[in-house]
Every structure is written in C-alpha cells, then in structure tokens.
Amino acid sequence: MKYDYDIIIAGGGLSGLWAAIELGDSYKVLLLDPSAYPRHKMCGEYLSAEIKDLLQSKGIVLDKLTDAYINHFQITLQNGKEIDSKLPLGGYGISRHCLDFELFKRASQSCSILKERVKEIYDDDPFQTVITTKNRYTCKQVIVATGKRSQLDRQLQRDFMKRKSEWLAVKMHYKYEMPLNKVELHNFDGGYAGLSKTETGAVNLCYLTSYRSFKKYKDVDLFQKEVLSGNPQLKAFFKTAQPLWEKPMTISQISFGIKKQGGSKLLFIGDSAGLIHPLCGNGMAMAIHSAHLAAINLEGFMQEKITRLQMIKNYRKHWRRFFQSRMRFGQWIQNILIHPHLTKVMYGLIARLPSIMPRIIKKTHGKPVKY
Ligand SMILES: Cc1cc2nc3c(=O)[nH]c(=O)nc-3n(C[C@H](O)[C@H](O)[C@H](O)COP(=O)(O)OP(=O)(O)OC[C@H]3O[C@@H](n4cnc5c(N)ncnc54)[C@H](O)[C@@H]3O)c2cc1C
Which protein residues are within 6 Å of ligand 1, measured from CB? Predict the structure, then answer.
C-alpha cells in the first residue's frame, strides 16, 4: 500500500516538533500547523532540566540558548509570606518564541512542514486520512499534538470537549530586575502567578485564574490592580515592571488532567494526551518526553513487527508509567493552592519542616530523560 507519508503529525508545538525531529531522520514525515514561527505562546516559560540531554541529542543545547539556569524557587502566600527552596533538578528560563523556533528549524531539516490546519482525521485501516483546510493526505500513522484544546478534538468526539473549563491564563513580558536563577510563584485570590527571566533578559509574568474570580472585573489591568496586587510581592512587581508588549496574551477554556483516548487508533502526545497543572512547571518537559515515547513505540509498528493496537497499548502503558502519578499530584497541589486556608496550613508545615518542599517539587517532576 502506498501512502503520501509514513507519519503525519497534527500540531507543531513542542510535542509535535519533537516527534518530527525524532521520526524525521528515519521516516517520511509531514507536520501540519496553521501558525507561523517564531511566535509567542501562553506559557510560564520555565523548562525543567529533565529533558536537557534529550534535546541535546538532536543538537538543541539549552545552555547555549539561555543564561537563565534556574535553581531557586520561591512561593508566596496571598499575604506575601515567602517560602524559599532549592529546585532539586533545576530548569531553564526560555521563551516559547525561542524554544519552539529552535525546534522548528531542526525539524525542518528532516521533514515537511506545512502551514495547514487539520480539520478531520479518519482511520481507514490499514492507512489513516488527514483532511486539512487545503488538502487531503494519507499516511500509515497519525500523531495528534494539537495541544490543550482544538476544534479537531470536537471532530474526534473527545469527552473533555463536552465540559466547560473555568480557567483562564494571562501572559506578558516585562522589563524588571530579578535574579536569573529564580522562579517565583505568587498566590492571589482565585489563582497564582509565575515570574521568571527568559533568554532575552525579559521577565515573563504568566498567571492562571478562575473565571469566577476574573468575571467581576473583565479587564486585565483592573484585575491585576484589584486582585493580583492583593499580594504585596505582586504589588511591588507591578509598581516598577515595564510591559514590553502592547497588550497581554490571554486564553480561556484550559482543561487540565488526563484526557481519555478510548478506542482511538491515533497517538495523542503532549497536552492532547493530558495537561499537568502549570504550577508544576513540567508541561513542556512532559510534552517533549511523551513525543519521545511515541517515537520509540512507533518503531516496531513501522517495521511491521507489531500491530497498530499493540503499539498504541504499549505507548499508553509507557505514558501512564511516566506521567500519571505526577499529573495526580499536580492536581492535589493545585487544589491546596487555590484555597487560602489550606495554603496557610501547608505553609505552617513547610516552615517547620523545610525539607518537605524539595520532596514536593520532586513529585511533580521526572528523572532526566536519556535518548
Ligand atoms: C498558563 C500556563 C502556564 C504554563 N507554564 C508552564 C511552564 O512554566 N513550564 C512548563 O513546562 N509548562 C508550562 N505549561 C504547559 C506547557 O505550555 C504545555 O504543556 C506545552 O506547551 C504542551 O506542548 P504541546 O505540543 O502539547 O502543545 P502546544 O505547545 O500548545 O502546541 C499545540 C500546537 O497545535 C497546533 N494546533 C492546534 N489545533 C490544530 C489543528 N487543528 N491542526 C494543526 N495544528 C493545530 C497549535 O497551533 C499549536 O502550535 C503552561 C501551561 C499553561 C496553560
């Protein structure tokens, strides 16, 4: 049977690009994404060092891309009280503008990338068909890497699309002085905000809030003045920080957790398989790691040693082994952080037993991934 491509990847964020990089050297790969590169993306831009070696195996050297190696974490309560901790493995402050573009350039060396939105995918065993806004393609296997929420998920009749999510996020780059090696997480009524430096020297402010908390204000500036600034640390930040963009980036309808894949014969990677709570700072590393797992598991199927169903079963088993417990732990931590009373109890505990903090952080992260 002749297909147009061996593998088609829907979505060119971190997971889709990484899958393209790993698979593009051995197979005929097509990656489809409607947006142009480089581009800014909603993200806290703290990248866990656990995927440093994996990236390096394909020539993406984080230490060359950014000076912001982060090994210090600070969390504050709504009243500004601080807890400081070392980050057991550490990470990098790097903008999505830079990171996605580096991966895009590397992926372009070995696979075709087209600026097209995927509208529909069909499993027509033994091949799969992808219909975009412009064309129709066939391949042996489709990988879905379309992120948190896409219209494509509706066509694929995915369960989570039936549920509304009350979370929205805001991001903006600022000129502001803070240590290169520090990431801060500040609590406010109804959400939390992260601050860290990127490779340009700009500080990224990215916060997540419930729509319930935001809807009284419906205006980002007012919300920041009235709600975020309730935390004295954020108040001090807004007093001197100078915005570097004309307006902030905003998104809504963010659904967290593991997304059911039912009997689907497609491979779901990155956020389209599941999104960990952003406070864990691990979504990007997980997205890239999940693409790596998909690439490993595809090998046997592409060489016709195992069936599609076996390949998908093996991938999902791997996925659960690496990510399920940290997703659940992330959910647990988020539940605590959005309740001021529970946050205070946790603060009291950590103040008495500071060694708990690195242990909590470890539970939301993985071990270094090797190629
Ligand atoms: C507020 C917030 C803060 C975060 N902060 C951090 C952090 O500090 N550190 C961290 O590690 N993680 C963080 N994350 C998580 C991280 O951003 C994601 O886990 C990561 O981007 C997932 O990569 P992905 O490839 O799955 O999806 P994405 O990077 O979102 O890429 C999806 C791609 O699919 C494309 N697409 C969508 N629909 C279609 C379609 N129909 N056809 C073709 N293409 C399509 C989009 O254009 C996009 O390029 C944060 C998330 C949020 C919401």
Answer: 10-16, 32-35, 41-47, 117-118, 145-147, 150-152, 169, 206, 208, 254, 270-272, 275, 278, 281-285, 287
